[in-house]
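Dear Dr. L.,

I hope this message finds you well. Following up on our conversation about the binding site, I have prepared a predicted three-dimensional model of the protein together with magnesium ion. For your records, I am including the exact sequence and ligand specification that went into the calculation, followed by the C-alpha cells. Please feel free to forward this to your student if that is useful.
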Amino acid sequence: MSYLVREIFASLQGEGVQSGRVAVFLRFAECNLWSGREADRATARCRFCDTDFVGGERFADAETLADAVAAAWPVADSENRLAVVTGGEPGLQLDEALIAALHRRGFAIAVETNGTLPLPPGLDWICVSPKAGNRLVVVRGDELKLVFPQDGADPAEFESLAFAHFLLQPMDGAEREANTAAALDYCLSHPRWRLGLQLHKSLGLR
Ligand SMILES: C[S@@+](CC[C@H](N)C(=O)[O-])C[C@H]1O[C@@H](n2cnc3c(N)ncnc32)[C@H](O)[C@@H]1O
Ligand SMILES: Nc1nc2[nH]cc(C(=O)O)c2c(=O)[nH]1
Ligand code: SF4
Ligand SMILES: [Mg+2]
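The resulting structure of the complex is given below.
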C-alpha cells in the first residue's frame, strides 16, 4: 500500500502523558471528520482542528516510509526511539506493514487518533481524543485526551472506558485562556483527570 504523508519531523512530544519525550512525528494527510479546507470547517464533524493536514508526499510502500522516519531521528544511535503517528487521522492509512517496518528500525510507535476508526494491532501507545457527536470504536488504550470544553462531550462520559490515563487538553483558539482556566477547574474538582498543556506551542516548537 502507498501512503500520503503531510510531513515528517523531529520534535518533543508536546501533548499527553509522554510530553517532553523526543519523537519523530509522522503526520498523515487526510481526516475522516474534516476535509481540511477552511470553507468546510463550519459544517465539519470536527470543527476546532489546529492542524494543516492537506496534501503532501506519496510514499510507495512501508519500507520507504519507515526509512524516511528513521532518517529524521535526530541522533546517530537508536536508543529510545519513538515515532508519533498522527495526522489528519492516522486510522485511515496506518497498517500492520508500516508498524512492522517501524519496529524493525527500533521505534516504539505511539498513535494520536480520534478513535472513530479501527486501528491495526501492534501499537505501543494509543492516545484517543474523542470528538463530540462522533462514535468511538477505539474504547481502550493508554490515554484518553479530551480537548476541553466541547459541547456534547462531558468528561464523565468517558470515565468507564479502559484507558490508563485521562487528560483534559484546553481547546486552543480564540478562547484558549478561558478554556485553560475551565480545564484547570475541572481537574481540581475531578482528580481522575490530569491537565495536559500543549508544551510545543509554549516552547515555539513544531
Ligand atoms: C490534529 S489531531 C490529529 C490526530 C487525530 N485526528 C485526533 O484528532 O486525535 C492531534 C491532537 O490535537 C488535538 N487538537 C486538535 N485541535 C486542537 C485544538 N484547537 N486545541 C487543542 N487540541 C487540539 C486533537 O484532539 C488531537 O489530540
Ligand atoms: N510537538 C508536537 N507534539 C504533538 N503531539 C501531538 C501532536 C499532533 O499534532 O498530533 C503534536 C504536534 O503537532 N507537535
Ligand atoms: S479529527 Fe483530528 S485531524 Fe481530524 S479535524 Fe479533528 S483534530 Fe483535526
Ligand atoms: Mg499538533
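In brief: Residues 12 and 22 are 4 Å apart (CA to CA).

With kind regards,
A. P.
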